[in-house]
Amino acid sequence: MNDVTLKLKPARRERLADVLYGQILEQIVSGQMAEGAKLPSEAHICRDFQVSRPVVREALMRLQADGLVVSRQGIGTFVKSRPSDKLTSLAASAEIASYLRAFEPRLALETECAGLAAMRRTKAQLNQIGEALSALEGAFARGETGWEEDFAFHHAVAEAAGNELFPRLLEDLREILSGSMRMALGLTRQGSDDRRRRVREEHRKIYSAISGQNRDLARLYMRYHLTESRARITGSHGDL
Hints:
Elements: H1 13-30, H2 42-49, H3 53-65, E1 69-72, E2 76-79, H4 87-90, H5 93-101, H6 103-120, H7 123-141, H8 147-160, H9 165-172, H10 174-190, H11 193-211, H12 215-234
Antiparallel strand pairs: 1-2
């Protein structure tokens, strides 16, 4: 028999870091690592998870960027905040890191979209944003997640920016955005009435600023909304 040559693709370091991120996150969410608890050293994590030191550092860097852990020079890394225990039921733990990273390009892209939309939107485009807002609020009222309506709202703002590349870029990001929106809005649906009220109000303020053609406010409200959405996922507010 002839020997068969296997063509295997090595796992990307970024992917391994996401998997490690997810496993540490699971222990934080479950309470195995309580707030204030010190994480094992990099060497111990390397040994326990059987990954290289660069993978461990990448995972810890992302956990710190997301506000879940804090590093103290010369002392170690500690759990800073514990997200809702519902988080890992809404998304695979290994995917949560990539969903949270999606907020970084969104901040750059959608903040500018909102500002340009305030300057350039037509009456028809404003109506489209308003209809998407009404649809989103309707989904909330029916107890639905509303991620498709949320995507439609942000897509309508991008279209109103007056550059066809903006909505095209959102479409290119649709798969990962849908995952992050499902996760964020899933937590909102299961959370408090006050949390749902704040999410509705954030969208209304974006619409109002675009309607009033106030570029600075539109940019500010969009940035605030995206920043708050990310914070609600990671538990930075501590609310449910």
